[in-house]
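Quick one: structure for this chain?
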Amino acid sequence: MDQSIVFESVSHVYNQGTPFATHALKDISVKIPDKQITAVIGHTGSGKSTFIQHLNALVRPTQGSLYLFGEKFTADSKHESLKWLRKKVGVVFQFPESQLFEETVLKDVMFGPMNFGLTEEEAEAVALEKLKLVGLPEEVYQRSPFELSGGQMRRVAIAGVLAQNPEVLVLDEPTAGLDPYGHHQMMDMFMRLQEQEQLTVIMVSHQMDDVATYADNVIVFDGGEIVKTGATREIFNAPEFLKSKQLDLPHTASFVQKIEEALGRDIMQSEDVPITVEEVAELLIAEKVRLETGETHV
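Got it. Here's what it folds into:
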C-alpha cells in the first residue's frame, strides 16, 4: 500500500450502544497523499477532530479499516505497543503549550526522545537541534517554559513534537490565539519544516486564507461525512458549495466578489477563483487595462 494513511469505510460512534450514541464519522474513505499538505475543513462538530484522533490511534474505528504505515486498525485489532506509531505521527493540538510540564525548556523537549529510547546525551543533541529549528534563542533553554511568552511556549511544545522526528505532522488549529504576526511566523515555520523534512502535513483549520496559501489538497467534512475532496484550487472554485457548508472563501476571493458587486459585472475571465494576493493584483491590473482600452468583459 503506497499511502501511509488510508481510511476504508471508517465510522466512529461515541457511547455506542447507549441512548447517548453519537455518530462522529460516517463511512469515511480517503487516502492522505504522502509528503504533501492536506487541509481538513468543516464547521464545528463536522467530524474533523475525531478524524485526526484516528491518525495516531487515540481513537479506533467503530466500523471499517484504517491503515497507518501498512498496519491495519479496526474495532477488534490488537496491538502490543503503539509507541512506533506515536513516533511516526506527531500531533500539535490547539494550544500545545498546555502539554508542557518539565522544569526547563531543554528537558521538556528531551522527554520524548528519551521516552523512545535515546540516551540523555542523544536526546539533548536532538532537543538542541529542534529548539534551533523552531527559532528559540539559547538563553531560554535552561529557563522554565512557564516563564516564556505564549508564542515561545508554543514553539517549545512544537519542538517537543518535532524531536520525535515524525514522518506525519498533524496540526490542529496550531495558531489559535496568536496575533497576526505570530500567526504568520508560525505558519511559515511549519511550511519550511515540511519542505526541509519532506513531511506529510495534515492541517485542521478554520482559516481559509491559510488553506488557500499553504495546502496542496483539501478534505471537506460535514455532518461526520467527507462531502468533497480535491486540489485546493478545485475546492475554492466552488464558492456556492462552500457557502452551503457554512464555510468562507479566502479574503482574496471575497474581495474580488465585492468589487464585482460594486461594478455590477464579473471581472474574472476564467473559472479560477483568485486565492493569492498576487492573483488578485494580476486580475485588477488586467481590469484596469481593459477599462483604459475601452474593452468590456461580460
